[in-house]
């Protein structure tokens, strides 16, 4: 029986066990004794039956394991590399059926880009004209400088842009594009985040002129310092005051000022591999403070020390549950 979208989520332990069996089957043929143990395991509880159904669905989509995980199957059963691979595979099982498609698309977008960052990584680039680009977690860009323009295409993720004056005779415009539109810097510092089907723009210094990808007849929007907006490919959103902590991520910090815990967790999840599940009973808890994004476990520990929150980890830390202490 294949996993369905509306079925209950298998428990983390069952997903990890299913991932372990899938890894073992990828490395060799099971012996008769092992196959009997697998059959008993699979039928021993509804949780395990559902977990293995997801493993079958994932196998059908992939035709095998992703290469990076398949190589880990060859390691010793108790090696840290193999255990980490099992944890990653368990996460894929938790996301099935949508997870593999999104994972595959993300990998393709990332690896074919000119510059990219992994989850939890940040990277600063100095371009040929002296402009600086900082890529946030899980981001990818293409860079095209020619005789007529300086172009950055944001494929996914988020960037902080600090433009430099162009010294070429053409005085080339500095432009950032996303699927939703074109942003021309007017001597400025700003952040752009791809949030399909929208783009989020926050201007810290100077101004940015925005043109929509699918509505060129619309008068361009000028967003000034201290302002932010979200826009789709055809419609501008409202212009409002930017968050005073916009860009704090480039300094390695996640800032909260009476932020809902649910919103904070959504942001923190961007910087770590795995899941953070939140008990709805504490979703509206308001938190404040400065938290390091390079060490999400430390951030979770800080929350638990400051607020009535219990942090429970599973699957070697890949799956975390936050509940009321």
Automatic annotation (TrEMBL):
<protein>
    <submittedName>
        <fullName>FecR family protein</fullName>
    </submittedName>
</protein>
<dbReference type="InterPro" id="IPR032623">
    <property type="entry name" value="FecR_N"/>
</dbReference>
<dbReference type="InterPro" id="IPR012373">
    <property type="entry name" value="Ferrdict_sens_TM"/>
</dbReference>
<feature type="domain" description="FecR N-terminal">
    <location>
        <begin position="16"/>
        <end position="56"/>
    </location>
</feature>
<dbReference type="Pfam" id="PF04773">
    <property type="entry name" value="FecR"/>
</dbReference>
<feature type="domain" description="FecR protein">
    <location>
        <begin position="114"/>
        <end position="209"/>
    </location>
</feature>
<dbReference type="InterPro" id="IPR006860">
    <property type="entry name" value="FecR"/>
</dbReference>
<dbReference type="Pfam" id="PF16220">
    <property type="entry name" value="DUF4880"/>
</dbReference>
